[in-house]
Design a protein that fits this description.
Elements lengths: L2 E7 L3 H16 L5 E8 L5 H8 L3 E3 L2 H6 L5 E4 L6 H10 L3 E5 L6 H13 L4 E4 L6 H13 L3 E9 L16 H4 L3 H4 L1 H12 L3 E9 L4 E3 L6 E3 L5 E8 L4 E7 L8 E8 L2 E6 L5 E6 L10 E4 L13 H18 L7 H19 L13
Parallel strand pairs: 1-2, 1-4, 2-3, 4-5, 5-6, 7-12
Antiparallel strand pairs: 7-13, 8-11, 9-10, 11-12, 13-14, 14-15, 15-16
Helix pairs in contact: 1-10, 4-5, 5-11, 6-9, 9-11
Keywords: Oxidoreductase
GO molecular function: nucleotide binding; oxidoreductase activity
Organism: Acrocarpospora macrocephala
Length: 370
């Protein structure tokens, strides 16, 4: 079997999650190609130790050298957003396949350039919206398409409590020049992609607001404080192209929540709920049931590859993502989510940010304070 030699750029949490998926996917699934960890790249001096720990036989400290190597067929980008576009474009022009973490880029212009590069390249490109790989998400999409009728409401939220401590140190995710945006892009991108994917419809317009609650945080090296230049939370209403009303929220200040991603869709014939807290279940209400019997029921969903309907978890979304990309490469079929899907999300992120900058309050108090 032909090897698919993988180079991963970035060895933080996401790089480790992707490396684990590439290392294990071929041991479980029957694939047309044999994925093999080839090269790890990182700017930190610790990249060599990380390569050994994660199972890479070689490493680089410059992504350009990784892309130039003959022993890399696929470049997996797990870096801050400001590097996504340059790495992906150069890799695609070099004939490599590319998997890029979400959000696709830091701006619409960058995402558009990535889409053009992908369309012109011999290699294939996939955007890393890993939650699409949950069997429950695909089942929810089928229920929406077949059983929900005309979609009227879409509610999506990604609630996270990772920054409730005001003394949590600065990180790249809190700098606009590296991350592009804060909770809006980091968490909201998942909510937007899943909402559009499940609804089978695209957001056509938004009105949003963002807030930064803690404007300064201690530097990680203890050398003073740094400015937080991204949003801590974002909320917006959305108009879908076929008329559905959407309500979205993304925050890192929802204490007690870990990864609170939830999407609800209400249609003329039924309602569907996906909740990441129960990743192997979907809730469904059939509006055609008699009123006395009408209510949500939980449906357990499993992937047929996992014997006897065993449950799967977060790490398996990356394994399934790797499997789907390898199968697409083996068959020559463009994978999904595509870079076009990433661009569609990027346009929504940009529109929300623009709307927030133009925010206008309509006052609710009268002259007497009532």
């Amino acid at each position: 079997m032909t090897d698919l030699r993988v180079g991963v750029v970035g060895h933080g949490f996401m790089g480790r999650a992707h490396a684990h998926a590439w290392r294990s996917v071929g041991h479980f699934f029957d694939l047309p190609l044999s994925p093999r960890l080839s090269v790890l790249c990182g700017r930190s001096p610790a990249v060599g130790a990380a390569a050994v720990r994660l199972g890479f036989p070689a490493w680089e400290t410059d992504w350009r050298r990784l892309v130039e190597r003959d022993d890399v067929d696929l470049v997996d980008i797990c870096t801050p957003g400001d590097t996504h576009a340059p790495i992906a474009i150069v890799a695609l022009r070099a004939g490599k396949h590319v998997l890029c973490e979400k959000p696709l880029a830091n701006s619409v212009a960058e995402a558009e350039a990535m889409v053009r590069a992908a369309r012109d390249a011999p290699g294939l490109a996939m955007a890393g919206f890993n939650f699409r790989r949950l069997p429950s998400v695909e089942f929810a999409r089928e229920l929406v398409a077949k059983r929900a009728g005309e979609i009227r409401h879409v509610r999506a939220a990604y609630l996270n409590g990772s920054l409730v401590d005001p003394e949590a140190p600065m990180a790249w995710r809190l700098r606009v020049e590296e991350a592009g945006s804060g909770a809006l892009g980091d968490l909201g991108a998942h909510a937007i992609d899943l909402a559009q994917h499940l609804a089978g419809d695209l957001i056509a317009g938004v009105s949003g607001i963002t807030r930064t609650f803690v404007p300064e945080r201690p530097l990680a090296d203890g050398g003073g404080r740094g400015s937080v230049t991204v949003d801590d939370a974002a909320a917006f209403v959305a108009r879908f192209s076929r008329g559905a009303l959407g309500v979205f929220e993304a925050t890192r200040y929802a204490d007690g929540r870990a990864e609170g991603l939830r999407v609800e869709l209400d249609g003329s014939l039924g309602s569907v709920i996906f909740d990441l807290g129960s990743p192997n279940e979907v809730s469904f209400l059939d509006a055609t049931d008699p009123p006395a019997e009408r209510g949500f029921r939980r449906i357990r969903v499993a992937h047929p590859a996992w014997w006897y309907s065993h449950a799967i978890g977060y790490e398996h979304t990356f394994t399934h993502q790797a499997r789907d990309l390898v199968e697409a490469i083996g068959s020559g079929v463009r994978p999904t989510p595509s870079f076009e899907d990433g661009l569609r999300v990027q346009r929504v992120l940009d529109a929300v940010a623009t709307s927030s900058g133009d925010w206008r309050d309509v006052l609710t108090s009268g002259v007497d304070g009532c």
